[in-house]
Amino acid sequence: MKPETIGRVVGIGVRVAGRVAGQRLAAAANSTSVPQSDASTRDPRTQGQVAGRTSGSLARGLGGFFKPFRRAGSIVWLEVTGVFFLLPVLVFAPTLWRTRLSYAHGPDHRTFVASAVVVLVFLYLGVTSFYRARKR
């Protein structure tokens, strides 16, 4: 994903989430504003319902705010994971190359097979992690 696109998505997400949260909080504040004399007659159940609506609105607003960050964060997470999966490939590839002549029967046959398995598994995991990141 291009940096310009990520910035645009984050900026739009922040503006929309801020506007929605502000409108919902203002609506909740208007519905809860009661004269001081009536505040003592208000039952706790109604106060709990108002608090629940306000917290639900806040949660939805924050969820909308963090949505672009969640997407960008998952892409970065997949790329970092891919790098860490490719590190064992870099470590075991020289061993695989050094023992390549013992692939069928030789003194380093077990070392070759173990290195080949490690390299293939981690190469697959690293490449698919980058592929999944690009796909998003």
Explain how this protein is built.
This protein has helices at 3-32, 36-39, 44-98, 109-135. The chain has 4 helices and no strands. By secondary structure, the chain is mainly α. It has one domain (3-135).
Features:
4 helices; mainly alpha; 136 residues; 0% strand
Helix content: over 70%
Return Rg in Å.
Answer: 28 Å
Low-pLDDT ranges: none
Structural class: mainly alpha
Number of domains: 1
DSSP strand tally: 0
**How much of the residues is beta strand, in percent?**
under 5%
Major sheet, described briefly? none
Write down the secondary-structure element order: HHHH
Secondary-structure map with pairings?
Blueprint: H1 3-32, H2 36-39, H3 44-98, H4 109-135
TL;DR?
This protein has 136 residues and is an all-alpha fold. It is built from four helices and no strands.
